[in-house]
Amino acid sequence: MTDLVRVNSVAKEFVLHNQGGARLAVLDHVSFAVKAGECLVLHGPSGAGKSTLLRLLYGNYKCTQGEILVRHHDRFVDIASADPREVLEVRRLTLSYVSQFLRVIPRVSALDIVAAPLIARGVDFSTAQKRAQDMLARLNIPQRLWALAPATFSGGEQQRVNIARSFIAITPVMLLDEPTASLDAQNRDVVISLIDEARRAGSALVGIFHDETVRERAATRWIDIHSFTAAEAA
Amino acid sequence: MSGMDMLRDAAALAPSPVLECDAVTRMYGERIGCRNVGFRLWPGEVLGIVGESGSGKSTLLRCLAGLDAPTSGRVIFQDEDGAVDVHALPEPRRRALMRRALGIVHQNPRDGLRMDVSAGGNVGERLMDRGERHYGRIRDVAVDWLRRVEISPERMDDLPRHFSGGMQQRLQIARVLVSGPRLVFMDEPTGGLDVSVQAKLLDLLRNLVRDLDIAAVIVTHDLAVARLLTDRLMVMKDGHVVEQGLTDQVLDDPQHAYTQLLTSAVLV
Ligand SMILES: Nc1ncnc2c1ncn2[C@@H]1O[C@H](COP(=O)(O)OP(=O)(O)OP(=O)(O)O)[C@@H](O)[C@H]1O
Ligand SMILES: Nc1ncnc2c1ncn2[C@@H]1O[C@H](COP(=O)(O)OP(=O)(O)OP(=O)(O)O)[C@@H](O)[C@H]1O
Ligand SMILES: [Mg+2]
Ligand SMILES: [Mg+2]
Description:
The structure holds 2 protein chains of 2 kinds.
Chain A: E1 3-16, E2 22-35, E3 39-43, H1 50-58, E4 65-72, E5 75-78, H2 84-93, E6 95-98, H3 110-120, H4 125-138, H5 155-168, E7 173-177, H6 185-200, E8 204-208, H7 212-218, E9 221-224
Parallel strand pairs in A: 3-8, 3-9, 6-7, 7-8
Antiparallel strand pairs in A: 1-2, 1-4, 4-5
Helix pairs in contact in A: 3-4, 3-5, 4-5
Chain B: E1 19-28, E2 31-41, E3 46-51, H1 57-64, E4 72-79, E5 82-85, H2 91-101, E6 102-105, H3 109-112, H4 119-129, H5 135-148, H6 165-177, E7 183-187, H7 195-212, E8 215-219, H8 223-229, E9 232-237, E10 240-246, H9 247-252, H10 257-265
Parallel strand pairs in B: 3-8, 3-9, 6-7, 7-8
Antiparallel strand pairs in B: 1-2, 1-4, 4-5, 9-10
The structure holds adenosine-5'-triphosphate (2 copies) and magnesium ion (2 copies).
The site of one magnesium ion has 3 residues of chain A, from helix 1.
């Protein structure tokens, strides 16, 4: 199977200019690859840098050093050095990031939020709506909520809308930051099946899961993030 | 990683920027308006400019939009038949270019609307500027645009001075977009409106920019607005650009001391 992600010698250090220029070295010498059909789980204690690593992969954080190659169509794009419009293009078609938090857009209905990624990929409106309905139903969002903007939804409902939106258009590379946190068992199972389906469809997934059960059922491989943690700054 | 399968150029993306800002400086006597600003804007992209009051955002925007000439540097616009140096054009041609291809949404709707002309007239007038003479067609397009910005066509013959601030701003947006600009400049488009009215306007702008596939430059002091509307962000301080990049990266992992201060002050 082909590598969809290659991380080469990545380091991340935060410089806190307004706190006396304190330097926070979080990751160092991070290297690994992820193949199509794998779900790689990042393991390590709180504060070790798991979320930081996912955000680096997404281009949301800037690498201090190293390269992050993501296969986009038939070539590798270095997310660490690509210009913004190229990163956006890779995100539109290849790379997605799933957290437990929905960024609520004012006035947009749950149905439209879920359908949006399909529309952005050129799927026609009625097909996109139909698939969004199926996805919302699958995640047990009551039908009476579909036409409403999620601003007033409960935390768990918003989280499930976010998952529906994230999995409606599976991308070749998917980054998951605790998507199942605080979900009940039934919905957690739905998410695990969604992950498995993506994997079987040939996606490469990198995930963080605090829940032991989810981790064991979703993971095909583990990495201990601790092995990459930078030594304490002097 | 070998260079073989590693192509950094974005061959699949648009071949040339719609706007290129090359070392633009504008001085007000001894005082710096903006200094040595450079960037490229690509079709379909939305660039945000943030920074404290007096940092040069409006000065820069006015240079980009063709309103004020830079003291030095160039603003290159990719027109249908090739690149033009906006400020090197003779005045009438620059005016014509601005009318035809550029749109400007002012913070104060009064600066962008004709307050003594009906709402429909404000929109229709721009079509007449473009040579449309057929009254029925002008009226149809005006009605359509009023709908798109959620103003009831029944208000067509009312004067904008009788509209609320949010409606005036939406009318201004219709007036700007009706003539089909390829590039739109907005200076604090939601400033001075209450939060709920802002949300509605933002949602509208977001959809219009996406559906029409226009490029835009938006000045705002509101980082939440920048997050919602822009792809890329430029941070200005004392006339200089201190940081620029992907909007979410600049907001979530700011590199410059000033940007860190700006982002720590508010939850975005
Ligand atoms: N934008 C940022 N600016 C400064 N420091 C940051 C930033 N993001 C993360 N950090 C720091 O990096 C370190 C790693 O944080 P991260 O969120 O990656 O940990 P984690 O392994 O995901 O922990 P958890 O399991 O608790 O979610 C922490 O010390 C955190 O404070
Ligand atoms: N017409 C002018 N004559 C002289 N100085 C000017 C003029 N316009 C702006 N300036 C000065 O240029 C600097 C930049 O002003 P500018 O209006 O571009 O700031 P801004 O970032 O848009 O601020 P704000 O957020 O308050 O609108 C300021 O120091 C301002 O006083
Ligand atoms: Mg985390
Ligand atoms: Mg200003």
